[in-house]
Structures are given as structure tokens and as C-alpha cells.
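During the second year of the project, the team shifted from modelling isolated chains to modelling whole assemblies. The rationale, set out in the original proposal, was that interfaces cannot be judged from single-chain predictions alone. As a representative example for this report, we include one of the complexes processed in the last quarter. Its constituent sequences, exactly as entered into the pipeline, are reproduced here:
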Amino acid sequence: MPLDSYDRTEPAEHSTPDTEPETEPRARLGLAASLAVHIGVTLLGVAGLVLAFGVGVGSPTDPGPGLWPLVAASLMTAAGMATIVRAALGERVESLRGSARPALGVALAVLFVLLFSFVSVLVALLVVYVLWTRLLGGMAWIPVLCWSLGGTAVMYVLFGVVLGTPFPAPLTAIP
Amino acid sequence: MTDAILHGFAVAVEPANLVAVLAGCLLGIVVGVLPGLGPITTISILIPFTYAMSPATAIILLAGVYAGVMYGGTVTSVLLRLPGEAASVVTAIDGYEMARRGRAGPALGISAIGSFVGATVALVGLTFFAPSLADLALHLGPPEYAALAVLGLLLIAYLGSGSFAKAMVAAGAGLFLSTVGLDPVSGAVRFAGDSLQLVEGFDVVAIVLGLFGIGEVLYNLRPSQGDATLTTRKIGRVFPSTQDLKASRGAIGRGSVLGTLVGLIPGGGGLVSSLVSYGVERRVTKNPGEFGKGAIQGVAGPETANNASSTSAFVPLLSLGIPFNVTVSLLFSVLLVHGITPGPQLVDEHPDVFWGVIASMYIGNVVLLVLSLPLVGVFVQILRLKFSVLAPLIVTVSLFGLYTIDNNTWNVWVAITFGVVGYLMRLWGFPLGPLVLAFILGEILETSLRQSLILSGGGFDIFVSRPFSLAILLIAVAVLAHSVIARLRTRGTRTTTDREPVAHRSGGSDES
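Output from the structure prediction step:
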């Protein structure tokens, strides 16, 4: 779904009144990978069971702190097994193809936190806006700079001046 | 009653609250139009900033945003066939077709009018129904609360668009996450290791902002497919003609009642109510062939119903103290932070909050009608904003907001982690709503379950020996049985489920 294509103004070409904005299905995982995903999720439930027993389950008359987590983890495990069955019967989920851009987004979010923790809030905002609009937005340099400087200024005023957030970075430009 | 309502209006017109309702509605509409931001993300971004406000002002602001998003989401549905929030998915069918036939104005106009009528009908219901339900709820004990919470979770999973098993996996994960930290009964520390932060448990805002806010941004970063085309920027005459009004009269009436009732059911708000209304309209119309080709009833009914249901979804929160949809559950957690436990006592103990919020909703409704009709042209211009500019703003505002909760980066890291989790869940078809709702209902459920067991001396018969809790549990069993039977029946006919979330930008159908 092209969220960047709002500038288009020409009328729609096709006339089929379908309800889905998507035009072609996304790539899907094969059987083995799909099973692996659902088995992995179920194992998380099993890990929960182990943790619950670790803190002490007790009994219904004398419940330990682990009794309720045990119920939650059992639900997750049982439902997880049902999803494995469904995957084995042919239900397919989306593949990770196309996750490079989301991964870059995560990297930029991490970079942002590190920069505002250890360097400076202003640097963090500016660097992340420039990188995001340039690398993920594919914008030309002039709009990149305009948006980044504008965004940084707005955020600085909002969080630094109006809300007076005490930021951790030693070199923070906010007094 | 009259005194109480008047008191509510006195609270609502206090300057801070009036500003809150105006700002909330306006912000809500803008956000509803913006790509990549649904009501859940927006409300959770705002939550850290409401901690400094009075509880009534905080809820008034957030309820205004919620109502505003419902209005704003319609604009993108009609003009782009991209629902701004999940509940507007249905509007994207006939609303978009109306716009293609040069009737974008009346489509938006009738939505605004229908939304106003629907929300007002639901509000009148809320005003008169919630206090009596609260009186009734005073007689409910821990077994009934436990049963209600179980039923709520089951219905959310059942009414969601995806697979029931996956919804239950998500619910189980949410319940488990809610147990991290102090055991509410014995005070023992669970699963915290050496982490001081984990002893306090996860902050719901960090989880929600991660799953919905950051997860959604990440999901939208994938290379795009398909195409969205803006039909027109020229909206023209917004106010529907007499003929249009006449044609939609019945749809709006039915939508109001349907929406109000469906909104009371756990998981029934938003999308479900608009789907039900669309189905009803298609059945009662004399020209079913018009549906899908720009029938104004197909816009008026669902839009009315979705606003009515999002209003009546406040009834369980304000009377029982149990939130049954994700947005309302966020308001529940805001009240808890302010030291107010929502429940049957709310109306007596905090009448300013109870009646103030209801009165503000009346005011907000009028504000939305007055703002949305003449300003539609302005809101359309917001569509020019690109997602690549908004995305870093959403991420940085979310992370800064989380930092301000306790001036610590712990919640920020939690949110980024849950952002990745939310991305994967979306990719693999695990709904996010049940996880968040289970996380919030988890403590109510655990506490009431264990109190029940203490009351009964460890026997589970307490849940079936009390008529009300037995009735609730029977409904829950019926839901579960129906889901399993339906699954077995359809297994032969369906080999693959190609269920793309319909409203990608707003978190699919979990959002209500």
C-alpha cells in the first residue's frame, strides 16, 4: 500500500468494486517455515509453563504465585498447538521477504535512543530524521533537510521547552 | 439524575475540560485522516502527557480523540478507499464508489450526520443505562467478575477477523505478561530476575506503543504493493440533499440502535458494528443491486453504527469497571494511574469523572459535527502529508513520551522490542488486540479468580453454583463450542486463508 502516493490526483482506472486495496497477494512462507513459526510460538508457551513451575504452582486450595501464570501459559501452549495443526493443514502466513526496510527502521529507532542517551537530544533528532527521510523515504536532499530541521525544532520546543523533559545525555543542548 | 447530569455539564465546561474536548476532537480528526496512526496509537502516545492533568480532563481529552478518529477515518475511506481506522473499512466500499461518481461531499456529509446521531443515541443510552447497570454490578462478586473477564476475552478472540487459535495464543501471551512482577495476592515476585523494573511489571503504555505504534510503522515500511488513488480533492457541497437525507433516514435510525447494542458486547465495537449494519442495510433495501456501487445507505448505516458502538463501549468501563475493547482498556489504565479504580462505585465516588466525561462526550459530539462539515476541505489537504515524513515523527514522539513517564529509557527499550514483536505478529496473523486486552484484564481476572477460590475454600463449584456467573460461563462455553464447530465445518471447504488485514494502517480489525 503506497502511503507515499497521496499526491496522485488522476481518477481511478479500474471499476471493480472490490473491498481490498491490495492488488496482489504477498509472498507466503512454505510448509516447513510456516510450521517452524508456529512451533516456535508454541515453545514460548512451553517456556512459560517451565517458568510457572519454577516459582511454585501450589494447589487450588493453596495457590502458589505460579498457578495463574501456569493457566496463561497452558492457554498459549494449547492454542499454539492448534495453530501448528492449521499450519500443517495448509494455512500459510506472510514471509519475511521485504523486511529489510522495517529492520532499518528498528536500527534507526535504536540509534535514536542511543544518541539521545549518550550524545545529545538535538543530534539524535536531526540524525534520525535525516537518515529516515533520506533512506526510507527516498526524498531529495532539500526536502530532507527542511523536514528534518523543522521536525527537530518542533520536538525540541515541545519536549525540551514546553514539557521540560530532563534528558540523560551529558552533551544535551537542553538546559 | 438531572442534578448529576447538570453537575457533569458544569465539570465539562470548566476551561481546562472544554479545551481538552476541543483539542481532543480536532486532534482525533487530523489523526484519523493521517496515515499510520489509529486511535490506539494516538491515545497511547498522549497518555504520558495526561499524567499531569486531573483524571476527568485526561479522560475527556482521550475520549475526544477516540471520537474524532472515528470521524476522521471516514475521509480516507471515502477518498482513497484506505480506511483511516478499522471501523471505516465498510465505508470504503460504497463511500469510495460515491466519491468516484462525484459524490464525495454527500458521502462525507451523511457520515458526519449519521455519526452525530448514532453517538448521541448511544450517549443517551449511556446516560440512563450505565448508572443502573452500576447499581446492579454492586451485587456482583469475584466469581462473576472472573466469568465476565473470561467471556470478554473469548468474545474478543471470537469476533476478531483472524484465526481464533491465534487470537487465543495472543491472549495467553498477554495474560502471562501481566503476571510479570508482584503477585497481587501473596506479594511474591514473579519472573523479574534481578531487574528492578520488572518487579513493577510491564507498563501497558510501553507495550501498546510498541505493538501498535512502532509495529505499525514497521509494517508500513515494507515495500508497497497495490495502489491507492485519491479520487478527488474537490469535495463540493458537503451537506446532503433532501433526497439523500430521506434515503439514509432509515439506515441512520437502524445503525444507531444496532451500534449501541453491539457496542455493549465485548469486542463488538467498531468494525463488527459497521459490518452488521452494512449487512442489515443490504437486506432491507429495495435495490440491493446499488450496494457496492455507491449506495448512500451503505455509508450512512455503518458510519452511524460504528460511532454509536464506540460510545456505548464506555458502558462496561464506567459501570462494571471492565474494559471490553483495546481503546477503552487504555482509558481504564489511565484511570488506574490517577488512583481511580473504575467500577460500580465510580458513579458515587467520582461523580465528576463519571458525569463530566459523559457530558463532555455530548459536547464533543456537537463539536465534531460543527467542525467536520465545514472543514472537510481542510482535512483533505492533510492527505498530502507523506508517510515517510510522519513515520520518524511517530517513532520519536512515542519514544520521547515513554521516556518522560519516569525519565528512564527502560520503557523505551521495551517499546522497541514490542515493536518488533508487533511487526512479526502482524506478518504472521496473530491479532494484537487480544494480547493487550488480556494484559489489562489479566490482573482483574487473576485477582477475582483467586478471591473466588478463597471464598469457596479451593473448590471450582463457586463458578457454577451462582446463577449469574453460571449464565456467563454458559455463554462462554457456547462461544467456544460454536467456534470449534464452525472451524470443523469450514475446514473441508477452505484450504488456505488469505486473510490480509483489511486496514493495514490502523492495526487491522483489532482496533476499536
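The mean pLDDT of chain B is 86. The two ends of chain B are 30 Å apart (CA to CA).
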